[in-house]
Amino acid sequence: MNDDPVLITGATGFLGGFLAGELVRRGKRTFLAAGPQAGAVDRIRRLLEFLDVTPKYSPKVFSSDITKPGLGLCPEDARALDTIREVIHCAALTSFSHRERARLEAVNIDGTANILDAVPACRRFYHMSTAYVAGKASGTCMEEPVSTRCFNNHYEATKKKAEDVAMHVCQGRNIDLTIFRPSITCGDSRTGRSTRFNALYYPVRVMLFLRDTIRKDILERDGSRAYSLGASMDPSGRVRLPVSLPGAGRINVIPVNYLVQAVIAVMESGATGIFHLVNPRENTVGELASFTEDFYGITGISISRELEADGPLQALVNSYMKVYYPYFCDGRSFDRKRSDRVLLNEGLVCPSLNREVFKVCMDFAIEMDWGARTEF
User: Fold this and answer.
1) Rounded distance between C-alpha atoms, residue 7 and residue 88, angstroms
2) Which residues contact 163 (CB under 8 A, 6 or more apart)?
3) Which H or E run contains 333?
4) Whether 197 contacts 368, CB under 8 Å
5) Which residue among 101, 154, 160, 270 is least packed, with the fewest CB closer than 10 Å?
6) What pTM does this model have?
């Protein structure tokens, strides 16, 4: 890896934080752009402690607001970016909420343009996108620009437009562009360590919340509310939740440690273009539901090809999880020929989301109170 300093945006986020930690661990000189909240230096310090990283070089840390031209930086910090030639752009808003539509556009689309404008000497731009820029496209998603205009949510749409911005600006300024498209990302496959617990984690959290609510109603009250929902608890304490999840497709999950290794391998290779960072071994919703039942004292979850809507408990589950249902029913595959040429040559193979990896990730999430103890 060269000696040029690199700017990492979203350095206190999930993917940006893990990438920043690994590059700092390796002695790379880094400029770390945290969000506009106060205390950026302290947040980065706590992040590096959480990741067990002892810096060889103290990173240059500053707060920034990528929704603003010039990133809202003071003149001194703005001048510091004038010499940056390499940028890893990870800052993004990942909300699926329709209420966040304007914010999604400001962060994901305008923010990408603002970052490129703020680094006039940039010659290498690494853009963290998502495999789901393909939106509702079916079949095999290729490692190439997408043309779809149909999306499952506004997050997907803004990430596609952000790619368009990056490609347009980089082509016009002769900047080498590499786009990373990871699939759903979970914690470290070895330790479970993570700083965010949405996506894969959220449905499990919902089921554990319902389990605990039913147990409390039965053990501390008369259980009438639980029984009216069709739920029950057996003598061993296992809770039966008679709910159905749509599961006609496959879920593609990669651990964050693999993503970090893959990104750095592509960077060191000097390759440009679009890279799908995905798992060749996908999971079914049925597998993940079975893991949840086996490890966390739940029974009764069934898988159907269609969305079920009968009953108050089912309606409650649907209200919590419906934004994720398109990913439960995803039948697509992701081309990875370009990625494999680099990653397999480096001996990088994505770990499967098996029972052991699932448990270590979920146990860590529970230990961290689903993120209440990992705010940076």
Assistant:
1) 6
2) 127, 129, 133, 145, 146, 179
3) strand 333-334
4) yes
5) 270
6) 0.97
316's tokens: 């409650």
Q: Which residues contact 275 (CB under 8 A, 6 or more apart)?
A: 143, 178, 179, 180, 181, 262, 266, 338, 339, 342
Give the per-residue pLDDT at 1: 66
HEC states along 125-192? EEEECCHHHHCCCCCEECCCCCCCCCCCCHHHHHHHHHHHHHHHHHHHHCCEEEEEEECEEECCCCCC
- Asked if residue 195 lies in contact with residue 17, where contact means CB atoms within 8 angstroms, the answer is yes
Q: Which position has the token pair 């390759």?
A: 271
Measure the CA–CA gap between 73 and 69, rounded to whole angstroms. 9
**Residue-range domain boundaries for the chain:** 6-182
What residue type is 292 in one-letter code? T
The distance of Cα 85 from the centroid of its chain, to the nearest Å, equals 26
One-letter amino acid at 128 equals M
CB 273 within 8 A of CB 178: yes
Dmax over CA atoms of the chain, in Å, equals: 70
Q: How would you label 146-170 residue by residue, b for 16+ Cβ within 10 Å and e otherwise?
A: beeeebbbbbbbbbbbbbebbbebb
What pLDDT was estimated at residue 57? 87
The amino acid that residue 143 corresponds to is: E
What does the pLDDT read at residue 48? 96
Residue 103 and residue 94 in contact, taking contact as beta carbons nearer than 8 Å: no
Annotation: CATH topology of 6-182:
Rossmann fold (3.40.50)
Task: Average the pLDDT over each of 205-214, 231-240, 296-305, 307-316 and give the range with the smallest value.
Answer: 307-316
Sign of dihedral through CA atoms 189, 193, 199, 205? Answer: positive
Q: Quick check: 217 and 225 in contact, CB under 8 A?
A: yes
CA gap 286, 112 in Å, rounded: 37
Beta bridge partners of residue 63, listed in sequence order: 34
Give bridge partners of residue 34 from the DSSP assignment. Answer: 63
The residue assigned the tokens 């703005």 is 78
SS3 48: helix
